[in-house]
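User: Please fill in residues for this 341-position structure.
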């Protein structure tokens, strides 16, 4: 029996609709905006890796149109204040742009979606892991005088050496004042902390010391490739951060310095409120985005040792640490990101 033309057309239409639905599955989360999403890529490795992670997840998982914009802390914060662009700055060190960030909050066009590092940014005195393991009594900066002899060098005349921050860095003043507060020059160490001359020289010194399995104690910060690659261990400062003491420690004219720990660096995933309004699913992902410090140190160390680009490090993160990033996104988004790797 012949099938009426109208029924035949109806069946054909249903088949085409069904085929279309199967070839383009409906997602639980999508970009939410047709506008291009701008992501700031800062010049240092951790921030660049995070920017590429954001780009990969937004592009492959949410079907967003994403472009990367070169940036840095002060100019990016200023641009977000004045223009509400870029849309996302994954590693904005709020503690370094306090005044600008205050104006941003007053204006209300940008917000902190999350702290990018689980334990925040850290600074302090570090020793190699092998030194810590061989000297279990060396756990805090107050233990240093007992181990001054361990840190002697041929040029120090039998005195221990503590490496300071590079010249011009704020922590150079802080370390000098902590040195005075602990009277380290009368307790087995040189008259003052030793200046490395530059950040590159400090990194090279640590690399040389670790390669030769020699003792080292000095300033560093994290998350960084140096801490991850050379397995540095931070000495505790039992006093914790005390704002009144800290105010004096950061003053080059501090008359009566007393020991305080560095404040934990506030490092924000900065996002425009316009993006949150237009792309709520993306905003929810950014509000969950966070890296454990140790994991980031290890990733940076891997990239530094192998001279890998940040894009390769981002891909490694997505491949090796599903337990972290899949907590940020719905299952369907995670599946699409996995398929893209």
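Assistant: Residues filled in for all 341 positions:
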């Amino acid at each position: 029996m012949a099938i009426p033309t109208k029924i035949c057309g109806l069946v054909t239409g249903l088949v085409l609709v069904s085929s279309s639905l199967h070839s383009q599955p409906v997602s639980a989360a999508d970009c939410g905006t047709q506008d291009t999403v701008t992501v700031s890529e800062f010049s240092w490795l951790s921030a660049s890796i995070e920017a590429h992670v954001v780009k990969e997840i937004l592009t492959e998982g949410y079907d967003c149109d994403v472009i990367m914009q070169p940036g840095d802390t002060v100019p990016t914060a200023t641009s977000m204040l004045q223009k509400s662009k870029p849309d996302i700055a994954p590693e904005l060190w709020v503690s370094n742009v306090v005044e600008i960030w205050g104006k941003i909050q007053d204006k209300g066009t940008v917000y902190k979606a999350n702290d990018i590092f689980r334990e925040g940014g850290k600074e302090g005195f570090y020793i190699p892991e092998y030194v810590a393991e061989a000297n279990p009594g060396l756990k805090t900066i107050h233990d240093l005088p007992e181990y001054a002899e361990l840190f002697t060098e041929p040029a120090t005349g039998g005195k221990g050496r503590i490496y300071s921050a590079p010249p011009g860095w704020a922590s150079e003043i802080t370390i000098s004042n902590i040195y005075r507060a602990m009277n380290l020059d009368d307790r087995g160490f040189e008259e003052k902390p030793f200046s490395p001359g530059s950040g590159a020289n400090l990194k090279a010194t640590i690399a040389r010391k670790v390669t030769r399995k020699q003792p080292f104690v000095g300033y560093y910060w994290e998350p960084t490739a140096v801490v991850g690659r050379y397995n540095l261990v931070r000495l505790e400062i039992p006093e914790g951060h005390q704002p009144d003491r800290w105010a004096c420690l950061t003053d080059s004219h501090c008359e009566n310095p007393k020991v305080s720990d560095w404040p934990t660096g506030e490092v924000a995933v900065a996002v425009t409120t316009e993006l949150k309004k237009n792309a709520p699913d993306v905003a929810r992902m950014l509000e969950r985005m966070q890296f454990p410090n140790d994991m980031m140190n290890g990733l940076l160390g891997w990239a530094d040792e192998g001279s890998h680009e940040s894009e390769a490090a981002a891909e490694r993160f997505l491949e090796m640490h599903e337990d972290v990033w899949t907590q940020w996104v719905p299952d369907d988004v995670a599946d699409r990101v996995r398929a893209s790797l």
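For context: The chain is about 45% helix and 15% strand.
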